[in-house]
Amino acid sequence: MTDRVSTLLGGRRESMERALGRTLGHPKTGPRASLPEKTRNFLREEAEDLYWNELEWEHITEEEALEEGALTELAFPGLLAFVRGLLLTEVMPDAKAPAAPRPEVVEDILGFLAGRVVELEDGLAAEEGDARDRMRLELSMTSRLVDLVLHLFHRLEPADIEVLEGSRRALS
Asked: Which helix (H) or strand (E) is 17 found in, with range?
């Protein structure tokens, strides 16, 4: 993870803590063996594929487009569901496997998303016209997606999210 990516994620977390007035909690990991690097990479790559596929679908269909931008929550349902699954701590009693939360993979996904935000910010100055508009939309959606994944990662309650949304709107 580059310094800018770490700074971006650290800054988002600090901002959330400031708005909430408390330290963010960390997901439960439970007793389990460390995830093999090959498996961890595979899971991160699956998340990246979901991101690219859902982003492209949104560009093609503009299904979630509004005047003020796309509804990121609806544009990336597969990726957000995948993240929820990686953070699952409870399963139904008749489940064939126990819950096995993998917050380290979600951290990898956050690194990827924050890296995309940095890339898009850097590339924005070089683009013009429709390409610039498309890049600006992707930047907005990806930046919002970072926030949504952080909400899931830190298991924020609806009331906490409402506070953060209010503070985000106040800054806009």
From this structure: helix 3-20
C-alpha separations of 25 from 32, 51, 91, 143, 157 in Å = 20, 26, 21, 21, 11
pLDDT of residue 128: 83
pTM of the model: 0.89
Residue 146's pLDDT is what? 97
CA triplet 165, 16, 14: central angle to 5 degrees? Answer: 150
**Domain residue ranges of the chain, discontinuous segments joined by +:** 3-171
Ranges in the chain, pLDDT < 70: 28-33, 63-70, 172
Q: Is the dihedral of CA 69, 73, 75, 80 positive or negative?
A: positive
Torsion of Cα atoms, 124 then 126 then 132 then 136, to 10°:
0
Query: Which pair of tokens denotes residue 97?
Result: 């496997």
Between CA 4 and CA 171 the distance in angstroms is 22
Contacts of residue 167, Cβ cutoff 8 Å, sequence gap at least 6 = 19
Distance separating alpha carbons of residues 16 and 165, to the nearest angstrom: 10
- Predicted pLDDT of residue 131: 84
Q: Helix, strand or coil for residue 66? A: strand
DSSP 70: E
